[in-house]
RNA sequence: GGGCGAUUAGCUCAGCUGGUCAGAGCGCCACGUUUACACCGUGGAUGUCGGGGGUUCGAACCCCUCAUCGCCCACCA
């Protein structure tokens, strides 16, 4: 659009019959060929809009939820592009972490062994040709580097599925900017980020009890916890007072931890146990002497009011153990089994016998052994009472977490440092959440942190810590003095790379070095996606043009992980918020309002609806849902989207087709090949432009506020009004004919209608472009062949339409439309064809309505096929009352307003219906 | 237990700072092959705005309270 609002147009042949089929294929190829969505990168930060796209888990399954949230992002990307931004819209693939590790293990029959060297000629035993699951024992060990290579190979296939879907859906991603979370750049950024954290003291290691998953045999972070209901039983056990004066009974759901008991704890104010504080008791079965102590965290109304503290049954035990300086008596191994070696603190023969019976067993089996022994000894009071309690699980695990002492790396995230916490809360306040109420989840989470971020995992596949440790002369590893590589070597794998100043022969030797074998939490990499995609610290200039980024779209379920951890990293590394806006999408619910998830088996594969309704239609369904609002999977909504796309094609074909035979009034081809705003002279046409200006203005505001659904609703509503009322009203005038009427419209009036139709449909192509990229591209090329893509065209400018409208009132369109509807109603109620002429009629409206209808009277009469006398009169009070509009004195202003667009007819006289064709 | 959100027509959902605020589409009923569209058009019917209080001239909207549903966090003796 030029500054005066004129729009050039080139005509191409129009199809006889339009349809949405085939558009996706056609335009996808065109966009690829012309690199329509390529990031240009030649302008400064202000002219760039950068998006931190969520990398989908490639080993996961596609479902319509993906389509939903990625469509929301794409709408914004396309909108910003039309607003003139150079849109930086990369795509990542998440192939780092446990899901991929498991998939690669099973697919190729391999597992990582960090003691192995990289073997360039390594061939996996399987290629996924066998459907048989490979037993873990038969998996062939390979080096981490070989595993990463296999992962890359397999991910490439999985990615292709996602990429195909994204392309089919019309995501305007720049495919040249894609990344892998296990790829070289991601590993380098994650390692560099960590080394910087380490240098600044933000990363530290600590030997401490922590939550541990016995299945995966790794520590897990607070952010990966999930509370689930878990069945258990209360066991009432009798401890014996050391002075022989009787028993103290406690209740526990973990009797198998009895050998790990280090104290009994009660509340200092609990009168029942006051006298016992400072004394000792002997544990049942094992006869281990433990103190009875007071601690305020003990709750009087829980269980017996006195608890046994074991090392470690739960996090409360840990805090008691720490606060009261209790000894450590761990009996649980990392694999979740009871240590086979009988601990030396169990002295009695009977105790050692019982322990021997439970040693080496899982906690579940050990509990059975112990309960039986307690029954026999009579030290269990009554039978176990079944109960259900909430227990912490690793989100990917199916056994309750245990607490195991281990050396782990932590990253400060405000969990222990209140000053940092405040800073991070401030960052949260600075970020614009869409919708805003999602902000509460951020604050909720940050305020609830109780530890720093545990970033080390005892897994094999992932980004390794870029660390070695010195081995002392006596062969002991000196963890306190980690050896780091220089940054220019990154990424490295310490299990195969050698630290500067050492040789490979010194690996694991006295006076040599040893590798840190742990890998980083997958979020330790994902938290740096902004730095990864913007080429942080690479010196190629991209970072300065794209960072801090503009938008982070993501799911609401990962606010505590991805969103929070990204803020942590950016805050620590770049001292800035990583993006201005965060857009949170809701869930997809199935038609029964259940959340769609693989485990529920109610997942819809996205290909189905796209095949059936078309990509534009599926996008329409997604676009109808606001951010943060759960949406029902609704094929009915997709049908409406499909209908909208078809309507858009038809309406445009019609408007462009009018006057094609007429050389002088070719729509879009005036002498200068433009739709010239000066040609819009008729009041009705100006009113349509006025309405368009208002819709553009409001839709633009809505999109600026990330309310794509509201913008769509505004555009769509006006589009249907434009079709049903405006086009119907001006149809005859645009044709320049007057079959049923004496007055042939003037050339100026014809040009006014045609120009308005052209300007209007041009505007709709642009307005719908972010939503229906395929249909709009199609019609765009009917109008603007050779001018490139609608997706690189300018977003409509409300001011330009407003100046075309000049002083015309929007209400002319409203009232002329209402008058046409009133005339249609006459025919509809008489059950005759809309073609039936009206011989005479009186139209009644409010005073403004009368003026408005008068301004478009010719069009109204033409469209209504009024051939005879038409009278225009003001509505009387009795008419208004008859229409059911109350005229209460105190509310006159508002009820009169309700009558503003009320148009009634009276004394209508219908002509002969045109001869009906006989039904065959 | 703490927090966030939702509850409007049979269905899916809009409804902004309290006054165009009882709305849209689907579905339903009736009519109509009209030179863009039968993948259609036109017209119509449909609601104690979850319940109960309160504030106000006026409440779907603000306040209190209860209920139901969903989610987040905490709850492991």
Characterization of the model:
With 920 residues, the chain is an alpha/beta fold. The chain is built from 27 helices and 31 strands. Strands 10, 11, 12, 13, 14, 15 and 16 form a seven-stranded mixed beta sheet that branches. It has a four-stranded antiparallel beta sheet with strand order 9-8-17-19. The protein has a three-stranded parallel beta sheet with strand order 18-25-24. Helix 3 crosses helix 4, helix 18 (683-704) crosses helix 23 (811-829) and helix 19 crosses helix 25. The longest helix is centred in the last third of the chain and has 28 residues, at 708-735. The radius of gyration is 37 Å and the shape is elongated. The two termini are 51 Å apart.
Question: Can you lay out the helices and strands and say which pair or pack?
Answer:
Elements: E1 7-8, H1 23-34, E2 48-50, H2 64-82, E3 86-88, E4 91-93, H3 98-108, E5 110-112, E6 140-142, H4 144-169, E7 178-180, H5 184-199, E8 203-213, E9 218-219, E10 225-241, E11 247-252, E12 261-266, E13 280-282, E14 289-294, E15 306-310, H6 315-323, H7 349-358, H8 363-377, E16 385-394, E17 402-411, H9 418-430, E18 432-434, H10 439-447, E19 453-454, E20 456-457, E21 468-470, E22 513-515, E23 519-520, H11 522-526, H12 529-533, H13 542-546, E24 549-555, H14 559-574, E25 579-585, E26 588-589, H15 607-613, H16 615-623, E27 631-632, H17 635-657, E28 674-675, H18 683-704, H19 708-735, H20 747-768, H21 773-783, H22 798-805, H23 811-829, E29 838-845, H24 847-855, H25 857-863, E30 866-874, H26 877-882, H27 892-898, E31 903-910
Parallel strand pairs: 2-3, 4-7, 5-6, 12-14, 18-25, 24-25, 26-27, 29-30
Antiparallel strand pairs: 1-28, 8-9, 8-17, 10-11, 10-13, 10-16, 12-15, 13-14, 17-19, 20-23, 21-22, 29-31
The structure holds one RNA strand of 77 nucleotides.
């Amino acid at each position: 659009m030029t500054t005066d609002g004129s729009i050039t147009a080139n005509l191409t042949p129009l199809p006889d019959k339009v349809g949405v089929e085939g558009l996706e294929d056609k335009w996808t190829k065109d966009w690829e060929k012309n690199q329509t969505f390529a990031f240009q990168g030649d302008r400064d930060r202000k002219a760039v809009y950068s998006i931190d796209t969520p990398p989908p888990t490639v080993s996961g399954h596609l479902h319509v939820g993906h389509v939903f949230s990625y469509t929301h992002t794409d709408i914004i990307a396309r909108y910003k592009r039309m607003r003139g931004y150079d849109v930086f819209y990369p795509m990542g693939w998440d192939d780092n972490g446990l899901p991929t590790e498991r998939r690669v293990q099973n697919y190729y029959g391999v597992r990582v062994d960090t003691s192995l060297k990289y073997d360039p000629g390594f061939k996996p035993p399987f290629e996924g040709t066998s459907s048989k699951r490979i037993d873990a024992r038969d998996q062939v060990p390979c080096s981490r580097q070989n595993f990463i290579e296999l992962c890359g190979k397999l991910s490439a296939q999985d990615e292709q599925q996602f990429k195909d879907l994204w392309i089919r859906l019309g995501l305007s991603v720049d495919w040249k900017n894609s990344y892998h979370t296990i790829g070289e750049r991601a590993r380098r950024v994650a390692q560099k980020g960590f080394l910087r954290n380490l240098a600044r003291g933000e990363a530290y290691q600590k030997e401490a009890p922590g939550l541990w998953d016995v299945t995966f045999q790794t520590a897990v972070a607070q952010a990966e916890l999930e509370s689930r209901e878990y069945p258990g039983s209360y066991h009432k056990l009798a401890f014996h007072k050391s002075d022989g004066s009787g028993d103290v009974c406690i209740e526990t759901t973990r009797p198998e931890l009895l050998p790990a008991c280090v104290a009994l704890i009660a509340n200092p104010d609990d009168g029942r146990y006051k006298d016992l504080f400072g004394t000792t008791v002997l544990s049942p079965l094992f006869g281990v002497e433990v103190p009875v102590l007071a601690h305020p965290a003990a709750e009087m109304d829980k269980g017996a009011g006195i608890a046994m503290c074991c090392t470690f049954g739960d996090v409360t035990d840990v805090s008691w153990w720490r606060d009261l300086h209790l000894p450590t008596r761990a009996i649980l191994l990392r694999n979740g089994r009871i240590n086979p070696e009988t601990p030396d603190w169990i002295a009695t023969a009977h105790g050692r016998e019982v322990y021997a019976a439970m040693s080496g067993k899982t906690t579940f089996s050990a509990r059975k052994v112990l309960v039986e022994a307690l029954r026999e000894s009579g030290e269990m009071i009554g039978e176990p009472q079944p109960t259900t309690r909430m227990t912490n699980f690793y989100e990917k695990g199916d056994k309750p977490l245990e607490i195991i002492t281990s050396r782990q790396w932590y990253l400060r995230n405000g969990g222990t440092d209140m000053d940092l916490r405040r800073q991070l809360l401030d960052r949260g306040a600075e970020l614009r959440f869409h919708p805003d109420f999602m902000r509460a989840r951020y604050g909720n989470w940050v305020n609830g942190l109780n530890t720093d971020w545990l970033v080390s995992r005892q897994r094999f596949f992932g980004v390794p810590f870029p660390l070695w440790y010195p081995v002392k002369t006596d062969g002991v590893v000196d963890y306190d003095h980690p050896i780091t590589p220089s940054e220019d070597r990154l990424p490295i794998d310490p299990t195969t790379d050698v630290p500067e100043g050492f040789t490979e022969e010194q690996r694991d030797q006295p006076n040599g070095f040893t590798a840190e074998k742990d890998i980083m939490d997958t979020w330790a990499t994902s938290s740096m996606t902004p730095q990864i995609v913007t080429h942080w610290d690479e010196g190629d200039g991209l970072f300065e043009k794209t960072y801090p980024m503009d938008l982070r779209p993501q799911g609401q379920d990962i606010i505590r992980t991805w969103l929070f951890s990204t803020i942590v990293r950016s805050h620590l590394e770049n001292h800035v918020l990583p993006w201005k806006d965060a857009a949170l999408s809701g869930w997809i619910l199935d038609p029964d309002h259940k959340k769609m998830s693989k485990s529920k088996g109610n997942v819809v594969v996205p290909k189905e609806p796209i095949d059936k309704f078309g990509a534009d239609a599926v996008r329409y369904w997604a676009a109808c849902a606001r951010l943060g609002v759960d949406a029902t999977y609704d094929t009915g909504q997709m049908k409406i989207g499909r209908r909208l796309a078809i309507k858009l094609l038809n309406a445009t074909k019609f408007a462009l087709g009018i006057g094609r035979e007429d050389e002088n009034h070719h729509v879009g081809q005036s002498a200068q090949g433009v739709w010239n705003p000066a040609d819009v002279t008729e009041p009705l046409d100006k009113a349509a432009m006025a309405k368009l200006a208002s819709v553009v203005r409001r839709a633009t505001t809505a999109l600026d506020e990330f309310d794509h659904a509201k913008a769509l609703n505004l555009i769509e509503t006006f589009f249907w009004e434009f079709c049903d009322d405006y086009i119907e009203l001006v149809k005859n005038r645009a044709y320049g004919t007057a079959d049923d009427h004496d007055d042939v419209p003037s050339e100026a009036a014809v040009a006014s209608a045609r120009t308005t139709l052209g300007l209007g449909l041009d505007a709709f192509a642009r307005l719908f472009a972010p939503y229906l990229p395929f249909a709009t591209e199609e019609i765009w090329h009917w109008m603007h062949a050779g001018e490139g893509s609608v997706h690189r065209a300018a977003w409509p400018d409300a001011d330009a339409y407003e100046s075309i409208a000049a002083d015309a009132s929007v209400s002319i369109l409203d009232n002329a439309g209402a008058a046409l509807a009133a005339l249609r109603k006459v025919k509809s109620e008489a059950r005759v064809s809309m073609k039936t002429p009206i011989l005479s009629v009186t139209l009644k409206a409010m005073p403004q309505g009368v003026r408005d209808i008068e301004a478009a009277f010719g069009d109204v009469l033409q469209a209504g096929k009024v051939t005879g006398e038409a009278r225009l009169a003001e509505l009387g009070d009795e008419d208004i009352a008859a229409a059911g509009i109350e005229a209460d004195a105190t509310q006159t202003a508002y009820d009169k307003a309700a009558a503003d667009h009320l148009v009634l007819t009276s004394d209508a006289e219908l002509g002969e219906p045109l001869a009906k064709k006989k039904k065959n």
